[in-house]
Amino acid sequence: MSDLALIGLTGSRLWPDRQLLEDTLLGTWHDALQVGYTGIELMHGTAEGADTIGDRWAKRNGLLVRERPADWEGPCGAECQPGHRRRNRRGIEYCPLAGHRRNQQMVDERPVLFVAASYRNSSGTADCSRRAKAAHIPVHTITA
């Protein structure tokens, strides 16, 4: 084995413990090296909180980063019901299921592992974790 391990990161926008998340990612990197990968590439959804912490940590350490933002303002998916769109605080209309679609897209990229930084029962983190487990992708959950 000589390639990078793709690691998915999902986590709360309110994640409070930078050190715990960074230590977890460092351990994941170390574990990937121990099993024969040349390193890791970190994939995340570009949200504030855990995603941002992970992004900064990966870039500081010279790792590749795969950003997967949700298309909140874009078109709805086939699963969306008519009239379900909402408006945010700025008055911009968005699809509330865009984050769930992005989570599935991340799972479909088949990372070897997801790190889930769960804080205050974040629904997005729980959704991504459920999808990963259903796809038989291991999920390493940390809580703060």
Instruction: Supply the number of helical segments.
Output: 4
Query: Could you state the order of secondary-structure elements as H and E?
Result: EHEHEEEHEHE
User: Main beta sheet: strand number and arrangement?
Assistant: 5 strands, parallel
Tally of domains: 1
Task: Indicate the radius of gyration in whole angstroms.
Answer: 16 Å
Strand order of the largest sheet: 3-2-1-6-7
Give the termini separation: 34 Å
Global outline: globular
What is the total tally of β strands? 7
Structural class call reads alpha/beta
List the SSEs and their pairings.
Layout: E1 4-11, H1 18-34, E2 39-44, H2 50-60, E3 64-67, E4 86-87, E5 93-94, H3 98-108, E6 113-118, H4 123-134, E7 139-143
Parallel strand pairs: 1-2, 1-6, 2-3, 6-7
Antiparallel strand pairs: 4-5
Helix pairs in contact: 1-2, 3-4
List the main descriptive attributes of the protein structure presented here.
144 residues, 35% helix, Rossmann fold, 23% strand, 4 helices
Walk me through the structure:
The protein is an alpha/beta fold. It has one domain: Rossmann fold (3-Layer(aba) Sandwich), CATH 3.40.50. It contains four helices and seven strands, in the order βαβαβββαβαβ. The strands form two sheets. The protein has a five-stranded parallel β-sheet, with helices on both faces. A two-stranded antiparallel sheet has the order 4-5. Helix 2 links the parallel strand 2 and strand 3. Helix 1 crosses helix 2 and helix 3 runs parallel beside helix 4. The chain is globular, with a radius of gyration of 16 Å. The mean pLDDT is 95.
